[in-house]
Write a structure and sequence with these properties.
This protein has 159 residues and is mainly alpha-helical. The protein is built from five helices and three strands. It has a three-stranded antiparallel β-sheet with strand order 1-2-3, with no helix packed on it.
Length: 159
């Protein structure tokens, strides 16, 4: 497919080269951007399947897809009253019954969050960190400091 190129200038004055396919009007415009990376990271990225550009493209598309899907995470039956109640709360006009309804809606939202794979991953990560801290404490306690040892200047001394 043939492409045409044109240079665009943003409001900040930076230049970017955009390429658009000639055949399809609905095709998305492509923009050239510059990304600054540390050399080791850039070299690692270049070794990935498709190279660094493809890796960045996939990461950005995944992030965009996750962001778009997160807005539709909750059912409309929960979001409609939530938005209504939050708007009223921001306008400082909630009644006692509406406050209670908002608490119930938030509990439903929290239940959806706890059922999500992201929540499960976060819980697994927190559990793994807790275990590592426990192991570290056990290791430190099993190796008591000798009475003749003095802290080095670089070590923090608690008083």
């Amino acid at each position: 497919m043939a492409t045409t190129s044109r240079k665009t200038t943003s409001a900040s004055g930076s230049k970017a080269r955009a390429t658009t396919p000639r055949k399809s009007r609905q095709a998305r415009e492509r923009v050239r951007v510059t990304v600054y990376l540390d050399e080791p990271l850039a070299n690692w990225g270049k070794q990935q399947e498709g190279g660094l550009s493809e890796l960045l493209r996939r990461l950005l598309m995944d992030a965009q897809q996750e962001q778009n899907s997160s807005h539709q995470h909750y059912p409309i039956e929960i979001m409609t009253p939530y938005k209504r109640l939050i708007d009223k709360k921001l306008a400082q006009g909630l009644t006692v019954d509406e406050e209670q309804e908002l608490v119930q809606v938030r509990e439903c939202i929290n239940a959806f969050d706890r059922a999500s794979p992201a929540w499960q991953r976060a819980q697994e990560t927190a559990t793994a960190i807790d275990q590592q801290l426990t192991d570290l404490r056990t290791f430190i306690q099993s190796h008591p400091k000798k009475s003749g040892d003095h802290p080095k200047k670089s070590e923090a001394v608690s008083v």
